[in-house]
Amino acid sequence: MKNFDIKEELYNLEAEQAVIGALLYNNLLYEKISFLLPEHFYIKINQEIIKAIFYMIDKGQIATPITISPLFKDNEIINLAGGNKYWSNLVTNVGPLVNITFNAEHIKDMYLRRSMIDLSLQCISSSQNIKLKQTIQNIIEETEVSIFKLSNTNTTKSIQEFNVIMKEVLKDALYASKQQSLVGVSSGLHKMDYHLGGFHNSDLIILAARPSMGKTALAINFAFNAAKKLLKKEDNGASVCFFSLEMSAKQLMLRIVGQESEIPSDRIRRGAISNNEYNKL
To answer: pLDDT at residue 2 above 50?
Structure first.
């Protein structure tokens, strides 16, 4: 069986050099790859160079081979990589500037794959070592947290220009003015829909009240109404994922069934229902 590092091939030297070279050629391209971090690069010297470039750009300085190279004059790593010849390769292997975003996304994809391998190996090692004080549940929870953190690094946000966002807002306003029905996702309550305009992407809606005032029941009502409208293929419906820390899935379903059948959920739980009511259920 061939013995090799399974992460050995999960990097692209040409892509890393192309991104660095393009950025040195035109610092304004930084806006297109603002999601990229130095640790996403596999080659150590490329990590150091891109870190220096980001630092200079963030400080409002111009990053070029002339301004960057003196910072690495006595750097052993770049000297081993070829010194001046390496800088020359960065400049000559730029390639089409329009490819910088694609190359940056490829670099990050390789980083995520390497990270998943590291995480998998750590999970295997922890699972095999039964002498550890950790229980298997601890290992599962720690793995879940690590995967969640890793998945969050895959969200990319870049700088957006004012005029572009303004056009989108005006487009949405024009679309809403031409609609006869609600534009957002309906809550099922007409007055609330009128004041909120429905639920929209990126909205954070907080439903607050004292204990036992019916917050969960109302939230379930919102969710079920939205899902029901989607089932009817109406434009203002949506699929819903409902999380609850206080109630099980069966308890939530019991509330929905009671709400839709107009039979008190406590009677359904106790089985205190007639044959007609059962048929209604």
So the answer is: no
Q: Which amino acid is at 159?
A: I
> In the numeric block, which tokens belong to residue 89?
């390769």
Instruction: Assign 97 a pLDDT band (cuts: 50, 70, 90).
Output: confident
Is 69 within 8 Å of 87 (Cβ atoms)? yes
Whole-angstrom Cα distance, residue 35 to residue 154?
Answer: 9
Instruction: Spell 19-53 as b/e; 16+ CB within 10 A means b.
Output: bbbbbbeebebbebbebbeeebbbbebbbbbbebb
Alpha helices in 39-161 (DSSP H): 44-58, 65-68, 76-81, 84-92, 100-128, 136-152
- The CA-CA-CA angle for residues 7, 114, 36, to 5°, reads 130
- What single-letter amino acid sits at 83? G
- Residue 63 φ/ψ, nearest 5 degrees: -100, 115
Neighbouring residues of 70: CB distance < 8 A, sequence distance ≥ 6 = none
- How many residues can be counted in the chain? 281
Contact 97, 22 (CB under 8 A): yes
- Out of 63-77, 79-93, 109-123, 193-207, pick the least confident: 79-93
Q: What are the DSSP calls for 186-205, one per residue?
A: --S-HHHHHHH-SB-TT---
Alpha carbon distance 225, 187 (integer Å): 6
Query: Apex CA 62: angle with CA 57 and CA 67, to 5°?
Result: 115
Q: Which pair of tokens denotes residue 129? A: 């070592």
pTM equals 0.56
CA distance 217 to 193: 18
| Residue 1: per-residue pLDDT | 40
